[in-house]
Amino acid sequence: MQYDLEGRIRTMKCEGAMVGKCRLCLQDGVILKRSHYLPAGVYRLLRDTTGLSNPNPYQLTGRGSVQTSKQQREFLLCNDCEQRLCKQGENWVLAHAKQPTGAFALESILSKATPSVYELGNPTKLYETALIPEVNRDALLYFAASVFWRGSIHGWNDDGSVPVNLYSYKEQFRRFLMGDLPFPRSASLWVIVRDGEEISQLTYAPSGLSRFGITMYRFTIPGFVFMLSVGRKIPERLRQYCILRGAGNPVVQTTIAEPWLMAEAREKLQQGMKARQNRQGGR
Fold first, then answer.
1. Which domain of life is it from (predicted)?
2. Which 3 state secondary structure label does DSSP give 133?
């Protein structure tokens, strides 16, 4: 019987599923899917469609930049919960993100609306999504929360460490995703729409730091930056731009995101290379 069970699990792993406890709904003994850290649809946004022999995106690693189809996946969620994440967040966000063709549905929606805050010569605009019914702010909030939460439940980093620490709020995030609780009061989410003539496809999973009693993380996908602050001491200047609790449910659109995203990507690459050198030196 033990042999049959082990053989079944090995077979299911090969087929992209295994039996275990779903980390979202907490049901045990269910079939788990190979859940993505960043949704599979994000990887499709990154693939080149111009006919190159290798359409795969570039990934930053401690060894440099590598072009690969490898995706971060692990057995974490049951099929029902996978579908929950898709229907309540991923489907809308990815359909309105910047596509490989250059189409950018959310940018088109915002271009037809009047920004609530805008100064001539200022590269940053603020839109109140409460006044723009075409913007699904619930999907934006849910999508971002799901990615940050996924980062808190598994050791996605190269060294096996967990990239996102939500501390005592992790269970609140899980229950928010299940529809049992509202979005945590001690959390604030910014949604930044990347703007400009040349919006890069630069994408990376959540990263950040903790300081002054506040945990701050961000990740980016084509067309978007999502920034999460967690803690009881979040200053008002951060809370006022929260897409859920800020006045008018704001989103920010700006051209200045690209330079600092590229600078952060270079920093990540340098840090990865340095960490690798340190590990080699310690052998």
1. Bacteria
2. coil
